[in-house]
């Protein structure tokens, strides 16, 4: 009797747990069903490598936005990753306990600040600064990269901190006992040993940068043309959806869902790679 | 020719850079927060908080957006908490690691990685159009519910795992059933961790813009039921700032957002700290 009840209970919780799987399935199905027809009509190659996005003329090419997304993300990673690694090393190796107890919640706060607030700060501080000192419209890939670099810090810091903390204390003691300096220990022993966790952290951070919308909308200028320099405005896949969903209908709206499919596939690939790296450990 | 730097020198340089960069990050955070607060705090009057927006937000306060945020958030949490906590219990108490749990975990990780704008697209096509809920608090709340599900699962799972096995063994040895054990032994001691997850979920709901604007809409009228369209504070702030309607009110709204996020973070930290202290 008791056993049967337990089985029933277990089954009930199993059904609840299926919610994540079914949510993922429903999201995937609805985005694809809505977006695939237009990709079929335009052709995958033309859609992804098409240079011209002109919904009013029925032209749907998202290549400039793919380039926009990649360049902003690359910029964010180039600035954000070294900074994040410094902070995570600081947290695990150098920070006095007092400092740590302040810094950790501060990083958490950085993660909690709404993306529109970052965007607004970028618009009212970073954009004019770039315009004044570097020229161009200010609304640019550089501005987007800077904002995203800040926004991906918490993700990269917290995950790489966890993987650095998870290392056995013996690694460090052994290295120090052999006469290595603290820094030699960090960059020859600790970082290589935590490599897979740090890689996963960076990939997840990159995923965040690719997926961010509102902050980027406000500082990127959103021009559909292919950017020529980091001081040019650009448009990403996310901002393309964010800007035009408000008024799009019919085929145009489908094309935005198709943009969402490309974004979705990129994120899922990155996420699978990150999970694979973590598992392998 | 390769220049050789003495280990002691490189140690000093590295230490300096790491300290410098870390301090810079803290200063940056401080700068961003105070940049908004200094310009926004003067706007934060009682009137601003208790009056509804007038003239598209050019004048008046932000009451309707506060109410909208509250309604969407409560709905999202009510929807996500049972599913999130239930899933966490299933993963920890009912199975070993199998293909099924790996699949469930993969789904949760994937849900966490999906960009908010994609949630917006999904919520729009599924809740707003397909289920005919229209732009409404309901559509927005459910979309946000799915979005915060992984956060709640992850924190709850950690909290449940940290409950000592002994608690369960004592409960079983006293003749407790599985249900009684979960309800009376495991749930109470993992409650603070679960609460932290829910609080972090609340924070995400308050901060979210992209997913909410596509599902709850951007109507400034005070929503009276969950079937009404709504404009949350984050969406209001975005529209005010982007369309240059009123910078003063944009700063004011952003200030309230930051204060709420700050309070949420402090609350979450206090719960965790108290919990850790109690368990040591």
What is the third-level CATH name, the topology of chain B? MetI-like fold
Radius of gyration of chain A, whole Å: 23 Å
Mean pLDDT of chain B: 91
Number of helices of chain A: 12
Q: Report the β-strand fraction of chain B as a percent range.
A: under 5%
Beta-strand share of residues of chain A:
under 5%
List the chains of the largest interface with their residue counts: A-B, 83 and 84 residues
Query: Structurally, how many domains make up the residues of chain A?
Result: 1
The string of secondary-structure elements of chain A, in order, is HHEEHHHHHHHHHH
Largest sheet of chain A: 2 strands, antiparallel
Q: What is the CATH H-level superfamily of chain B?
A: MetI-like
Q: Largest beta sheet of chain B, briefly?
A: 2 strands, antiparallel
- Whole-number average pLDDT of chain A? 92
Question: Architecture of chain B, CATH level 2?
Answer: Orthogonal Bundle
Q: Sketch the topology of chain B as an H/E string, one letter per element.
A: HHEEHHHHHHHHH
| Alpha carbon gyration radius of chain B | 23 Å
Name of the CATH first level of chain B: Mainly Alpha
CATH C-level class of chain A: Mainly Alpha
Largest sheet strand order of chain B: 1-2
Strand order of the largest sheet of chain A: 1-2
The protein's oligomeric status is heterodimer
Give a verbal description of the structure.
The complex is a heterodimer of chains A (281) and B (280). Chain A is mainly α and 281 residues long. Chain A is built from twelve helices and two strands. Chain A has helices spanning 2-42, 44-49, 63-94, 97-112, 115-134, 141-165, 169-177, 182-193, 195-211, 214-220, 237-244, 250-280; strands at residues 53-54, 59-60. In chain A, β1 (53-54) and β2 form a beta hairpin. The longest helix of chain A is centred in the first third of the chain and has 41 residues, at 2-42. Chain A is globular and about 70 Å long. The two termini of chain A are 43 Å apart. Chain B has helices at residues 7-40, 46-50, 63-94, 99-113, 116-130, 137-161, 165-173, 178-207, 210-215, 233-242, 247-279, and strands spanning 53-54, 59-60. Chain B is globular, with a radius of gyration of 23 Å. In chain B, α1 packs across α11, α3 (63-94) runs parallel beside α6 (137-161) and α5 (116-130) packs across α6.
């Amino acid at each position: 009797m008791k056993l049967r009840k337990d089985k029933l209970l277990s089954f009930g919780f199993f059904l609840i747990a299926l919610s994540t799987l079914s949510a993922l399935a429903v999201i995937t199905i609805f985005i694809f069903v809505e977006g695939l027809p237009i990709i079929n009509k335009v052709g995958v190659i033309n859609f992804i490598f098409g240079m011209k996005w002109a919904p009013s003329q029925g032209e749907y090419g998202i290549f400039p936005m793919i380039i926009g997304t990649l360049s902003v993300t690359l910029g964010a990673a180039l600035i954000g990753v070294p900074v994040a690694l410094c902070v995570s090393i600081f947290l695990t190796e150098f920070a006095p306990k007092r400092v740590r107890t302040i810094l950790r919640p501060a990083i958490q706060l950085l993660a909690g600040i709404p993306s529109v607030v970052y965007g607004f700060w970028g618009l009212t501080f970073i954009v004019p600064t770039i315009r004044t000192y570097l020229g161009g419209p200010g609304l640019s890939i550089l501005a987007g990269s800077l904002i995203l670099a800040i926004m991906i810090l918490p993700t990269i810091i917290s995950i790489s901190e966890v993987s650095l903390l998870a290392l056995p204390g013996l690694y460090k003691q052994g290295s120090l006992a052999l006469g290595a300096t603290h820094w030699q220990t960090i960059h020859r022993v600790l970082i290589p040993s935590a490599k897979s966790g740090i890689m996963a952290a960076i990939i997840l951070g990159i995923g965040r940068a690719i997926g961010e919308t509102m902050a980027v909308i406000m500082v990127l200028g959103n021009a559909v043309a292919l950017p020529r320099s980091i001081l040019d405005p650009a448009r990403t896949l996310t901002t393309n959806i964010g800007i035009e969903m408000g008024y799009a209908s019919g085929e145009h709206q489908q094309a935005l869902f198709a943009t969402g499919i490309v974004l979705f596939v990129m994120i899922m690939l990155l996420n699978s790679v990150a999970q694979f790296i973590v598992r392998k450990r | 020719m390769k220049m050789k730097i003495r280990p002691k020198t490189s140690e000093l340089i590295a230490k300096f850079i790491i300290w410098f960069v870390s301090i810079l990050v803290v200063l940056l955070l401080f700068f961003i927060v105070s940049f908004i607060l200094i310009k926004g705090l003067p706007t934060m009057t009682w009137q601003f908080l208790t009056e509804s927006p007038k003239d598209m937000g050019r004048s008046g306060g932000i009451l309707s957006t506060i109410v909208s945020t509250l309604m969407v958030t409560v709905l999202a949490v009510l929807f996500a908490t049972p599913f999130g906590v239930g899933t966490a219990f299933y993963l920890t108490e009912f199975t070993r690691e199998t293909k099924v749990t790996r699949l469930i975990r993969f789904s949760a990780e994937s849900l966490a990685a999906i960009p908010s704008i994609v949630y917006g697209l999904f919520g729009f096509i599924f809740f707003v159009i397909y289920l005919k809920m229209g732009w409404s608090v309901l559509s927005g709340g459910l979309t946000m519910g799915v979005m915060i599900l992984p956060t709640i699962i992850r924190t709850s799972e950690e909290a449940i795992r940290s409950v000592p096995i002994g608690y369960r063994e004592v409960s079983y040895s006293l003749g407790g059933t599985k249900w009684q054990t979960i309800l009376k032994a495991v749930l109470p001691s993992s409650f603070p961790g679960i609460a932290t997850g829910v609080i972090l979920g609340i924070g995400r709901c308050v901060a979210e813009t992209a997913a909410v604007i596509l599902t709850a809409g951007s109507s400034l009228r005070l929503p009276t039921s969950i079937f009404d369209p709504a404009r949350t504070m984050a969406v209001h702030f975005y529209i005010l700032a982007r369309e240059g309607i009123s910078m003063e009110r944009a700063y004011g709204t952003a200030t309230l957002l930051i204060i709420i996020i700050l309070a949420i973070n402090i609350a979450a930290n206090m719960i965790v700290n108290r919990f850790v202290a109690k368990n040591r």
